Structures are given as C-alpha cells and as structure tokens.
Inverse folding.
C-alpha cells in the first residue's frame, strides 16, 4: 500500500486494542484520506489487523454522535451545547450527592478507558470528586482475579509478568486466543508472526482450551480441557514437578518465601485425581509438566478463559506458582516484567488504584479490587432501596448492558436512575438509557503515548505520536470531558486534594500530558530534566516517528515486588482459593452443558459492529455444539434451538462443530443490537444474541468478585415446530 500522489502522511498508533499497532494516515489538505500499516514503527513494524484499517471509517461513521445529546420528555434525544450539558450533569450529580450522600452516584468505566491515556489519567480525579465507592468497570469481567493474585504475591496488582515470546522455547497458552484477540496482558503486535517464530526456531506451543481455536490450530499441540478446571490442571503439574524433584528451589528461595505452605496442599491434586475432572489424562499432565521443566526455557501464559471461569483466582495463582517453581519467573524466555518508560505502578500505589479487598459492596458484600466493585452487582445497587442506593450514574466508554452478566436486568435498572450521563461515541444498548450523552472528538484528534500497555510489552520501548487531525472548535477529547465534569463537581486535577493545592501554588497546570511527561522524564529511560541529558523526553519521542525500541525484557523482579521479604508464594487469600478447588474436585460432577465465549478478529467486545467492512460475511453469533451433543439432544446444524440458564431462556442458532469439546457450547458476547436499530443502522440490522443474557449475575468468584463468564451451566433443546392439527 503506497501513499496517494499529493498526500502527506502522519504516524499514528491504533487505539483499538492492546497491541497498539503503528498506522500511517495519509492526508490531503489536512483531511485523512487513507490509512496504511506503518512499516517503520519500532514495535509493530508494519503489522496491522483489519480493525486498525477501519479507523477512518470509524471516525466517519454517520451514526457516530457528534454533539452532546439530551433526552427529551418523549424519550428522544436532541442536541444541547457543551456548556449547558456539563452544567446540567454537574447540577444533577451534585444534587444527588447532596441529598443522598456520595455513594448515591456510581461510575462505570469501560475498556476503552485504558486505551485513551488521557482519560485513564484523569479517571481518579473524577472518582475522588464524586467521593463514591460505587466504581464499576470492565476489570471485574476481565482481570480482577489476576489483579488480586499479583497484589497478594508481589504487592502490586500491576506487577504483571508477560511471556517473553522472543526468547521462549516453550509456550503453554491456557485459555487465551491471541490470534483472534491480538494478545492481552501481553502487548505483542503481530502475535501470529511472534508465535510462528517460536515454532521456526524449533520451539513448542501448547494450547490448553475447551475449543480448538485459531491459536490451537497453529500450535504444536492442542489439549482440550473442561472449563473452570484449569487450577486443578496447573496444580497437578506443580505436584508432578515437586515429586520429580524438578522445582527450582534455589530460585524460589532467592525470590521469596512460603512455597512449603502450598506444597503441603498438593496431595489433593495428584494427576490421577484431577484427570476426570479436567478432562486431561494423568499421563498427559505428567508429560506436559516435565516438558515445561525440560525445555531450555518455558513459560505458562493464561488469560480470559481461566481468568473468568469458576476458581479464577486459584487459576491465576497457579500460573504464577508454576512459572516460579520452574525457575522461569523473571528469567529470559520465561515470565518477565517489562520495564516501562512511563512507570505508573509507583503512582498507582499512592492512590486507591492499587490493592484489593479493602471494602465491600453494600447489597451483596462483594469485594473491591483496584478500587472497583464487581459490575455484576451494579443492578443490585440501583434496585435495592436504603442508604447508599445508587441513583446517579456516569458511564465512560463502556456498554455494561452487553458486557456484564444479566445485561437485560441492568438495562431495566438503568431506567430507574434519577440521572445518567454517558461519555461515548455511539447511542448503544447502555447509553440509550442516559439523560445526557457526551461524545468525544474523533480518535485521530487525540495523541497517543504508550502508557498503560508499556507495562505489558513483550519488548521494551515507547512511542509518542501527536494527533493526526485538529479537532473542531466544538469537539472535546475524552479526558477534557471527564475533567470538565470533575470541575463541575468541585474536584481538582488529581485524585489528591493536597497535591492539587501544592501544584496550584507553584503555578503548575496538571494535565494528562504533563503527568505523562513527568513520568517519562523521571522514569527508567528519562532525561531527568537535564538540558543536554541523553535520556528521553516528549520532544525527542515526537521526533522519532515510529518510537524507540529499548531492547528485550530484562530481569527486574526487585522493581516489581513491594514486600520486604520478596515474593509471597503462599498468601492466605490465595491458599483459601486452592482449598476451594480441592473441595470442588471431590464433589459430584454436574452433567450440564457448559457455555463458553469466543472472540472474532473483526469485532471488539460489543462494538465496531456498525462498520460494514468489519461485519460482512457469515453471522458470528452461532452457538457451537459438538456433534455428539447435537446427536444426543436432537439439534441440527443451522437450525434454531432454545437455550436455558438459571436466569434466561431464549433462541440461538446452532452450528455443529467439533472445535468445541463434548459437553461445551460456545456463544460470543456483545452481539444482538436490535434494541439500537434506530441509532446504529448497520449493527441494528445484524442478527444476533448476546451471551450475557444467559450468564448469571449471582455467580461470582468469591475472592476477587470476578464474573464467571465461562463454564456457565445451560440446557439446550431443539425448537420443535408444532404442526397444526388436521381438522376432521
Ligand atoms: N460473556 C462475556 N462477557 C464479557 C467478556 C467475555 O469474554 N464474555 N469479556 C469481558 C471483557 S474482557 C471486557 S474488557 C468487557 C468490556 O466491557 P465494556 O467496556 O463495557 O464494553 P465494550 O463493548 O468494550 O464497550 C466499549 C464502549 O466504548 C465506546 N467507545 C469506543 N471508542 C470510544 C472513544 O474513543 N471514547 C469513548 N468515550 N467511548 C468510546 C463504544 O461505543 C462502546 O460503547 O466485556 C466483558 N464481558
Ligand atoms: N478481535 C478482538 N480482539 C479483542 C477483543 C475482542 O472482543 N475482539 N477483546 C479485547 C479484550 S477486552 C480482551 S480482555 C482480550 C481477551 O483476550 P483473550 O483472552 O486472548 O481472548 P479470548 O478469545 O476471550 O480467549 C479466551 C479463551 O479461553 C477459552 N476458554 C473459555 N473457558 C475456558 C476455561 O475454563 N479454561 C481454559 N483453559 N480456556 C477457556 C476460550 O475458548 C478462548 O479461546 O481480547 C482483546 N482483543
Ligand atoms: S491488532 Fe488491530 S485493533 Fe489491535 S492495535 Fe493492531 S490494528 Fe489496532
Ligand atoms: Mo477485556
């Protein structure tokens, strides 16, 4: 793809997923006319996926909201000016706070918030201004169990080790499908190329998943597992290593304390004992454990599958333990901590953003994790009367009606609110319930710096690219909208009033840009404000169009462990999670079908479904059913069936596929946009259902409050069309 004649081009970084691929945007007369992969990007080197190439269409989508909208008495929306809109939001939320207390307002932050560094940096100030503990978001359906694990073992939820893909000889990928997701908690543009390189240099990739995924198909070996049983499988491998004398005790002793306490619990996880439960035979478990130990380097990586099934905390814990016992924690080719140029871990530790279990939700007493309560209880908090009942809501870049279990109930609860304001680019299943919707400027009007995902890169480096287009006079960036709202609520620029006061006295204006610059300059590669310093600053980075590569990951456990005695290999909370797994193995198995999710390369959770270039082709919302189950239940390919869970009964379209294991069915989340037909023409016309209609909001993992999205028990039966009775 080359630049059209007469065009100039500007580098950009795709904000649509964690990979953050470099793009080149071609402009004519300042107007974007095309987008191409950026070959000179220091990290993605010319890789992009189909979503990134749609970024201009996303900004140009005629259904995208361009001015603030206010809901009228008849339920329709009409434009309102920014000043009036912000004044209204400030007044209504303040009134709710004055009358009912701070907890009567809630916020929900969706995933996109971490892809927009400005918004991510001002989020804490908005929460502080509201003063509420009712903070909800995507992490309780995504990373909560991992946050709890890292917090308990390393002392920070954000001490997240990533697989050193560039040097590993053996990757065990458990419940992640990076070929569709492009990698998560593992920032690795062109994941397919990086996995191919492992195989090309003679390494092995083993995928452990209930479905033979795209990633499984390119792997050396696919191991099919029963959903929700990963912790038992992992702990059984750990037992094999202990019994075979293959645990690297020297490294464990150097890195931390407590391994004996977990060792004492391993008798419950003999491979023979977990084989039937996990669906993996004892010989395979033993072989895989020894392969991990025998390989010159190896790493276990897991993601959404185990992280959002039953026993998610125990699974996340067992992954960390296994890597450590293999001697592969903080070792090249193993699980390593990146050295981000902008290191927010220390800043996060000063604020409420780090930690877990410090308070609980009002109605169901569910635990907080990194300052968020489980989103599965948002509807309870809105519906249940009493002091602290949620009456006002701010949503930012999220769609809980589609992304949270029992979204239908959330939709009904949203109608009960006194006031709701949403910051989003679309009227979707959630924002359509708002009284006020505030749209940000196009993505290309925002600059990009590798901030949150610098902490998860499989190779160190950093990029800072300026905005590609100028925003219009009446357009605002996401962070500006949040900051303006914060101000109307009486808050300052940071989450810490004392800091705000001190900085104001010094005449320093706190913006996300200033915070990022400060963190960059004082960070591991920064110029430390020395005028001729060799280190990095924003100006230098802007001059390097594709950013800078800072080399392979380096051992850095010391910087990432915040306990004086080193890593805690057996924290109390996590040992309890292991006991729960042992008890579950002993219990009678259930014969019910188990529902799991799946992702598609051309989709992004509940959105990007309004772009014709991404949704054409076969519908993606079929329920995958194994041929044995289909035969047993009388289900036929392409026909409709009725699926029932504890909370919902509804129609699905069956696709028979031996990709899923017997006993498992798969349905994606985020589809089914009939309710927004009037607001999103393309998405609204798609067929579809959303897995979260069936997923139980009562079921959570108790330690992290994590939603249980995978392995949900369902029943499926054919829809028998009653034939009209013949009249005599
Ligand atoms: N059953 C099931 N449920 C799941 C999952 C699953 O695997 N299975 N996955 C879970 C996971 S991992 C996650 S992270 C959550 C996601 O949950 P959410 O974050 O609630 O949902 P998204 O669909 O990502 O919503 C993104 C929203 O951001 C808006 N948006 C896009 N760009 C911008 C922008 O530039 N600015 C603003 N302000 N808004 C923008 C979109 O219009 C959309 O409304 O879903 C979870 N739900
Ligand atoms: N194209 C695209 N990319 C995305 C997204 C998207 O929606 N579309 N979403 C983004 C977000 S928000 C996130 S968090 C990441 C997620 O990134 P990933 O975790 O890589 O994505 P998933 O496809 O959800 O992979 C989870 C895998 O776990 C398997 N699984 C389900 N239950 C279990 C279980 O109990 N045990 C095991 N071992 N496996 C199980 C599923 O079959 C699936 O293959 O992707 C991000 N990237
Ligand atoms: S993988 Fe696709 S969506 Fe993700 S950053 Fe790259 S181009 Fe964007
Ligand atoms: Mo996510």
């Amino acid at each position: 793809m080359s630049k059209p004649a007469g065009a100039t081009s500007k580098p950009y970084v795709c904000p649509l997923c964690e990979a953050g691929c470099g793009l080149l945007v071609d402009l004519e007369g300042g107007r974007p006319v095309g987008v191409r992969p950026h070959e000179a990007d220091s990290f993605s080197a010319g890789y992009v996926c189909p979503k990134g190439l749609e970024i201009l269409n996303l900004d140009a989508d005629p259904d995208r909201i361009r001015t603030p909208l206010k809901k009228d008495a008849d339920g329709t929306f009409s434009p309102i000016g920014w000043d009036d809109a912000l004044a209204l939001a400030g007044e209504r939320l303040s009134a709710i706070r004055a009358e009912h207390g701070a907890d009567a307002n809630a916020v929900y932050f969706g995933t996109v918030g971490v892809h927009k560094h400005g918004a991510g940096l001002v989020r804490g100030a908005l929460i502080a201004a509201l003063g509420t503990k009712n903070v909800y978001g995507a992490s309780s359906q995504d990373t909560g169990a991992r946050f709890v694990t890292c917090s308990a073992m390393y002392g920070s939820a954000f001490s997240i080790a990533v697989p050193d893909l560039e040097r590993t000889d053996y990757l065990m990928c458990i419940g992640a499908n990076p070929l569709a997701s492009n990698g998560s908690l593992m920032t690795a543009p062109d994941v397919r190329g990086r996995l191919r390189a492992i195989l090309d240099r003679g390494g092995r990739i083993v995928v452990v998943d209930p479905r033979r995924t795209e990633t499984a198909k390119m792997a050396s070996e696919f191991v099919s597992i029963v959903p929700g049983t990963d912790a038992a499988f992992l702990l059984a491998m750990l037992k094999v290593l202990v019994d075979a004398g293959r645990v690297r005790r020297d490294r464990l002793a150097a890195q931390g304390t407590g391994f004996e306490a977990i060792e004492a619990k391993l008798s419950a996880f003999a491979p023979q004992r977990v084989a039937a439960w996990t669906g993996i035979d004892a010989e395979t478990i033993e072989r895989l454990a020894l392969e991990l130990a025998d390989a010159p380097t190896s790493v276990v990586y897991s993601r959404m599958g185990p992280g959002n099934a039953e026993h998610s905390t125990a699974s996340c814990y067992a992954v960390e333990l296994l890597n450590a016992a293999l001697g592969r924690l903080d070792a090249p080719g193993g699980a390593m901590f990146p050295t981000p140029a902008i290191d927010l871990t220390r800043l996060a530790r000063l604020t409420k953003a780090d930690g877990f279990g410090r308070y609980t939700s009002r109605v169901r007493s569910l635990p907080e994790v990194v300052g968020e309560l489980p989103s599965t209880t948002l509807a309870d908090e809105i519906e249940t009367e009493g002091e602290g009942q949620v009456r006002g809501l701010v949503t930012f870049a999220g769609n809980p009606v589609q992304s949270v279990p029992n979204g239908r109930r959330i939709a009904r609860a949203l109608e009960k609110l006194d006031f709701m304001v949403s910051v989003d680019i679309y009227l979707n299943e959630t924002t359509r319930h708002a009284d006020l919707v505030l749209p940000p400027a196009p993505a290309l009007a925002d600059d990009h710096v590798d901030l949150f995902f610098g902490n998860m890169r499989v190779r160190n480096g950093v990029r800072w690219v300026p905005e590609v287009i100028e925003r219009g006079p009446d357009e605002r960036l996401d962070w500006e909208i949040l900051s303006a709202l914060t101000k109307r609520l009486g808050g300052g620029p940071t989450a810490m009033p004392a800091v705000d006061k001190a900085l104001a006295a010094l005449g320093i204006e706190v913006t996300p840009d200033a915070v990022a610059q400060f963190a960059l300059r004082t960070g591991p590669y920064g110029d430390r404000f020395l005028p001729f310093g060799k280190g990095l600053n924003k100006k230098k980075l802007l001059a390097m169009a594709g950013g800078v590569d800072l080399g392979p990951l380096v051992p850095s456990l010391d910087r990432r462990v915040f306990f004086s005695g080193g890593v805690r290999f057996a924290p109390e909370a996590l040992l309890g999670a292991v006991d729960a797994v042992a008890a579950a193995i002993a219990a009678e198995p259930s014969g019910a079908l188990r529902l799991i999710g799946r992702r598609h390369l051309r989709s992004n959770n509940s959105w990007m479904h309004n772009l014709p270039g991404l949704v054409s082709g076969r519908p993606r919302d079929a329920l995958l059913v194994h041929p044995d189950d289909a035969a047993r239940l009388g289900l036929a390919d392409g026909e409709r069936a009725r699926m029932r869970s504890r909370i919902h009964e509804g129609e699905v379209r069956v696709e028979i596929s031996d990709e899923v294991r017997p006993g498992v069915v798969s349905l994606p989340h985020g589809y089914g946009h009939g309710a927004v037909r009037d607001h999103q023409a393309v998405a609204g016309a798609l067929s579809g259902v959303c897995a979260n209609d069936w997923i139980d909001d009562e079921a959570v993992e108790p330690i992290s409050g994590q939603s249980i999205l995978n392995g949900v028990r369902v029943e499926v039966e054919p829809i028998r069309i009653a034939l009209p009775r013949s009249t005599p």
